[in-house]
Amino acid sequence: MSEDQIALLEVTRNLDKTWETLAPRYGVTNPNPPWKTSLTAMCDCLAVSGALPALDRRRAEDELADSLYSDVPSPERQLLALVHTMVSRGLVSEADLASRMRIVRERLEAV
Amino acid sequence: MSHTHTHGNPGDSHHKAAPMVEEITDYEVLEIAVRELAIEHGLFTAEDHRRFTEWAESIGPAAGSRLVAKAWTDPAFKALALKDGLKACKEIGVDWAEPTGVGTPSDYMEFHLLEDTPTLHHVIVCTLCSCYPRPLLGMSPEWYRTTNYRRRLVRWPRQVLAEFGLILPPEVEVRVEDSNQKCRFMVLPMRPAGTDKWSEEQLAAIVTRDCMIGVALPKPGRTVDVHPIQKARRPVKGSHQEAAQ
Which residues of chain A neighbour B104 with C-beta distances below 8 Å? Predict the structure, then answer.
């Protein structure tokens, strides 16, 4: 498991935008961000398909939680660790991800 | 996706939407982006993702609470639950085969209920990762996933339980059950005194998630898991002010 920084994820990592910081700012009481269940489902799907076995994913998450993302709270840490693992294993590329993030943001912010 | 609403009682004219976060974070964008790419790359299908999302949203500790309450009030059901946990789960409407027909990769279809007695207390952990009886208890709490809990519980169980506010007398044996890739466990706590004439519904209300993990005990009046911040018994007065100077 590579614990080298991934530039895109370093840009994405923002402690001021984690759910535990953001939710109280807006008076939101839901303990989890809206994407948490989807993240959980994604982990299950990757395990079912064999693309990323659950034990491999959790081992990598433990390693990254103790090192690179130790200062990031959950579930953001879980998300960053999952994506880090997927990029490290070549399941998705950093360039594709950066490009898709721009597209997704444009879509979500469209009026 | 981020739009959550509360629903008042029928006829409630003061229906109000719950507040919501009015900004899109890079985390939310990242989750969507990686999911879309994973589907496009054929790592899984959108249909599978929808099915697992619906399943994850449907589970929670209420099912476990029902199972315990029924075991407390129905001796035949309790015997079944201790002998064949999966069959007992089906009787209360929980099918471990969902959502795929053979369960999920994180929920191996082998389940055992651990019965507490006056001299034996169980607590569950997964030292390897975060195995958890999700069909009965829903998603695991964050502390359950931490290496802090997983590493220390097996070495110093009484100390860790005390950190949850659960201090057991020395004559009570503490047994830590390590979940694994092949088996899930859940604690059947003892029915507390003062609940003799309670209904199953009343009983279920005091069987919280933490009681079924084994880091708390059910008792009348305790219906939510709140991890207390213990006040120091012997606070050192003024030490922080001095340190700040």
Answer: 44, 47-48
